[in-house]
Amino acid sequence: MDRLSALLTEDLTAVDAIIHQYLASPVGTIPNLAAHLIDAGGKRIRPLITLAAARLLGGGGDGPRKLAAAVEFIHSATLLHDDVVDVSSMRRGKKSANVVWGNSASVLVGDFLFARSFNLMVETGDIQVLDILARAASVIAEGEVMQLAAANDAETTRERYMAIIAAKTAALFAAAGKSGAVAAGRAGPEAIALETYGRELGLAFQLVDDALDYGGASATMGKNAGDDFREGKVTLPVIFARDAGDDSERVFWRRVVGGERTDDDFHRAVALVKRHNAIALTLDAARAHADAARNALKGLPANAYREALEALPEFVVERAY
Amino acid sequence: MDRLSALLTEDLTAVDAIIHQYLASPVGTIPNLAAHLIDAGGKRIRPLITLAAARLLGGGGDGPRKLAAAVEFIHSATLLHDDVVDVSSMRRGKKSANVVWGNSASVLVGDFLFARSFNLMVETGDIQVLDILARAASVIAEGEVMQLAAANDAETTRERYMAIIAAKTAALFAAAGKSGAVAAGRAGPEAIALETYGRELGLAFQLVDDALDYGGASATMGKNAGDDFREGKVTLPVIFARDAGDDSERVFWRRVVGGERTDDDFHRAVALVKRHNAIALTLDAARAHADAARNALKGLPANAYREALEALPEFVVERAY
């Protein structure tokens, strides 16, 4: 990640400038609320993928920067709406925008960011890029609705869980990679390779996130641990623990996923997840997707951008340790 | 309106088919929630403008239909989000989607519709059309945030009110007209004329809506009368009444806009609006914009589409009587 950021310092600075330029509005709430989120130190992993994909394939100029800003705008819009949907109160170590400005402002500023992302794409003049990101935006929204429908459903299968994270998370990573390649004028096999890279990396990323919500490999609870549990979300650690558990454990999972949950319940959930090795199994799955991401780059030009992209999946998985 | 619908029956049927095709999703909540809104008998005034603008200028084929469906999708997305923001419980004579499916589903399905509108625009292959509608989408979101910031502000000026409705309502009408012209290959003065037509018609439309919220010209209360009052929105009838009122009336307006409001307060508000002739003044303003809309069409080819578009502003204003 640091390697990629270092390679792309100039691009990233330009992307941040574009972001602030497109946040400008005479309606003060818009830049204030949006900057509260966007300047709070997000990792910019999605725009980095777009930029690296384009630069790896020799794509020059300002197009990839606008595209990277558009990708970050779509991501930011979904975060604003997610926090409303999940009734979250913290994001990136700060009070979330819905707590500071209210749900209504978060919904509407999310809409603004979403619209702005399309303004930016239009400016690239590349309708193929618009196609890729507009499709991704539909799929993301579908994934979010799927997740909403699955919340509190203790019987959620691994298959369904994977379909949800493929849509809500991996689709934008995939589009970030693919659109970077297309912006570099390489819409053929290179675009497919970078789409696959993004999708697999996105799956690994979400699996790691979901493992961290139960403490990660070290079972050390980070500041957001337990969020999924409290929201009745069934993630892969829960699925592994539930499927390996005995009858009384399955009764426990049905109760806590479907109904009321206490802090004591969360501690029991973490213990069960640990007992059944469910974090390790989840991280094995993450590692498999991380490997698939790295492998997808094999046929591409060997240069510093490819090397940095190759190192990223390992970095993503290491977050869990 | 009937005239326009009659002229465009075939197109409208095709647009409805496109809408349902693009609502399809394996995630059942999406088509169910969206169809609840879209099939509830909206007037389709925005897609009619797009279709008529394109046909008036000789634009053929499927492009204008996809574009008209995209316009209706943007409108529908904003309605879903509006009802969440305004905590509405009724829409088009039915329970609103947020009441039936919850706020979260309404936010996310709104996002889906918004994304789908861009999918449709991409399919037209016309980046100019994408530019027009993406800009309109930004402006709409700005208008909604402006309105949110102005809510409960009893000092809202006429200027500010006009800026809000120009953004939240008239921008999409303007884009509907302009994009129809562009889809017909007439991006020059014809597009400007139809953009002006749409903007002015949209202003008239919103002014009439706001007059109806205080009973319209006949002061007969329709089923949604009082919504703006209950939400602390300062619309033109209130601005006229407030500015013509004495000190005690201004104290009343400050209290009811800024704070708690009872049904009795609404009856007094209606009485004040009536006493100061504020509905008639609002409808005069609506009529001026309706006239400007009609006048904008003067240089365009004289045909049945133009005639039907010319008749529409009068129809819009007549709703208030």
From TrEMBL, chains A, B:
Q: Does the keyword Chaperone apply?
A: no
What would be an example GO MF term here?
Answer: metal ion binding
- Return the InterPro entries for the record: Isoprenoid_synthase_dom_sf, Polyprenyl_synt, Polyprenyl_synt_CS
Tell me one Pfam family matched here: polyprenyl_synt
Q: Which cofactor does it need?
A: Mg(2+)
Q: Which GO terms describe its biological process?
A: isoprenoid biosynthetic process
Identify the SUPFAM superfamilies for this entry: Terpenoid synthases
Q: Does the keyword Signal apply?
A: no
For this UniProt record, the keywords arranged alphabetically read as follows: Magnesium, Metal-binding, Transferase
The entry sums up its family as follows: Belongs to the FPP/GGPP synthase family.
Query: This chain belongs to which protein, by name?
Result: Farnesyltranstransferase
What species is this protein from? Candidatus Viadribacter manganicus
